[in-house]
Specification:
The structure is a single chain. The chain is mainly alpha-helical and 133 residues long. It has one domain. Helices cover 56% and strands 3% of the residues. A two-stranded antiparallel ribbon has the order 1-2. Helix 2 packs across helix 4, helix 2 crosses helix 5 and helix 3 packs across helix 4. The model has no long low-confidence stretch (mean pLDDT 90).
Length: 133
């Protein structure tokens, strides 16, 4: 994990850190209001990234590349960024962090038999369950 001791940013309080996290990495909410559903989303992204990076490490160099391929577009990183782009970028950072130096195989998401099933599960969550507020 990166150290913030010499960072130009000052996040001294819990509230400041929570604000930065929520604004950039929060999963917001979903229509089912389900913790399990949020964890399934993270597991699905991590699982698919682990598998796809083994097949083509250059193309799937990180979770951002994976999600951009899945959604067929590059996500805006600056300016007036759409909520979906913020969510997907934040998810990619969370998942990249969770995958850092992981050597064990991530279990397949529940109910998924193929990699396409996993991809469809990710897209379905974003399109049908995620609320941008």
């Amino acid at each position: 994990m990166a150290s913030i001791k010499n960072s130009p940013y000052n996040f001294d309080t819990y509230e400041q850190k929570q604000f930065v996290y929520s604004a950039n990495f929060g999963l917001a909410t979903n229509t089912a209001k389900s913790y399990k559903q949020k964890m399934d989303l993270i597991n699905s992204i991590c699982f698919l990234q682990q598998r796809m990076s083994k097949k083509d490490p250059e193309k799937y160099k990180n979770c951002l590349a994976l999600l951009q391929i899945i959604f067929g577009r590059e996500f805006q990183q600056s300016g007036d960024v759409p909520g979906e782009d913020t969510l997907l970028t934040g998810l990619s950072i969370i998942c990249d962090d969770l995958l850092y130096v992981v050597e064990d195989e991530i279990p397949a998401p529940e109910g998924c038999k193929t990699l396409k099933d996993v991809k469809d599960k990710i897209v379905d969550y974003i399109k049908n369950e995620w609320l941008p507020f």
